[in-house]
Write a structure and sequence with these properties.
about 140 residues; alpha/beta; 4-stranded mixed sheet; 2 helices; 8 strands; about 25% helix; about 20% strand; elongated
């Protein structure tokens, strides 16, 4: 927030703009416990369990690389971010989660080929749009 006669208000505004850039993009490179060796400005990761080095103490947060170094953002309940490495969305609900594809049917006394083909197509479509991870 800007206040009347606030000293260095550009610092507050610039920090807010950095947070907006990372949180509104809602895409992360993946989940890592240690900072990547050569991050590019604008890239972000979800900090995994047992974080090390600059990520120590920031488990579960979004770590974004800026010109000024690492910035860490606490996700809010219900936040979604697209995980580029997994090719699927992650959602934050008291921790990061990702939907898993259901097991496809196998075996059985009566095999309905058309129904199974439909289920395979449905799961494939949900993987393609990032609802389920194909990994």
């Amino acid at each position: 927030m800007l206040f009347t006669a606030q000293a260095q208000k550009e610092t507050t505004v610039n920090e807010a703009l950095v947070a907006i850039d990372f949180l509104l993009a809602s895409a992360v490179e993946g989940v890592v416990a240690a900072p990547p060796a050569t991050p590019l400005v604008g890239q972000a990761w979800i900090v995994g369990a047992a974080p090390t080095a600059a990520f120590a103490g920031h488990s579960g947060k979004i770590a974004g690389w800026t010109q000024g170094g690492w910035r860490f953002f606490q996700p809010g309940e219900g936040m979604r971010a697209f995980d580029i490495a997994a090719g699927a969305f992650r959602q934050y609900l008291n921790g990061w989660m990702m939907a898993s594809a259901p097991d496809l049917p196998v075996g059985g006394g009566i095999v309905d080929v058309e129904a199974r083909a439909c289920l395979v197509a449905l799961v494939t479509a949900l993987e393609e749009i990032g609802i389920f991870s194909s990994t």
